[in-house]
Design brief:
By secondary structure, the chain is mainly α. It has two domains: 2-25 and 87-161, no CATH class; 28-82, no CATH class. The protein contains three helices and two strands; from the N terminus they run αββαα. It has helices at 2-23, 90-121, 127-161; strands at 53-56, 63-66. A two-stranded antiparallel sheet has the order 1-2. Strand 1 (53-56) and strand 2 (63-66) form a beta hairpin. Helix 1 (2-23) packs antiparallel against helix 2 (90-121) and helix 2 (90-121) packs antiparallel against helix 3 (127-161). The two termini are 45 Å apart.
Length: 162
């Protein structure tokens, strides 16, 4: 039984760590060649984030983000690092990680409840195996509740620090 719990925990942690960059939605207006952000409450025209400018392409007349031109006509070249989470603040990063945990945690919790149910079902009258199945269900519910409480705890800490 402990092996099943350990394998489930290891799988949960691995998926949480590895799925983060894959689940992160890129920001539409923060890299060269991406579409410009549409006007909103703080911007009256199309705009780009960072030190990019919004230009209209000559071919299809789309609004795309580009690096600004230098005085000599060249482009500003440097090392461009992609932000894997697509956020620029610590609060945004924490929110993104918690969203991923909630997304991944739900199926893992359901699978662990099913495993616990099978343990209880196939205990064959052995009280220790039956109790082990009950613990699996209980611990999966507690783990999922902790994931949801983490969002509230993160909000409380963010409000206390700001």
């Amino acid at each position: 039984m402990r092996t099943v719990l350990h394998v489930g925990l290891i799988a949960f942690v691995a998926v949480s760590l590895l799925a983060g960059p894959a689940l992160a939605a890129p920001d539409p207006c923060d890299s060269p060649g991406s579409n410009c952000c549409p006007p909103d409450a703080t911007h009256t025209t199309y705009y780009c984030k960072g030190n990019l400018i919004c230009n209209t392409t000559s071919i299809d007349h789309r609004q795309v983000c580009e690096r600004p031109q230098e005085q000599d006509g060249g482009t500003s070249e440097g090392i461009a690092l992609q932000n894997p989470l697509g956020v620029s603040t610590v609060e945004g990063a924490i929110a993104k990680v918690l969203d991923i945990l909630k997304t991944v945690g739900a199926p893992v919790a359901v699978i662990m409840v099913i495993i616990g149910g099978f343990q209880m079902l196939f205990s064959a009258g052995d009280p220790d195996k039956f109790k082990s199945g009950q613990k699996t269900i209980l611990y999966s519910a507690i783990g999922y509740a902790i994931i949801f409480l983490a969002d509230g705890i993160a909000t409380l800490i963010t409000n206390a620090l700001s």
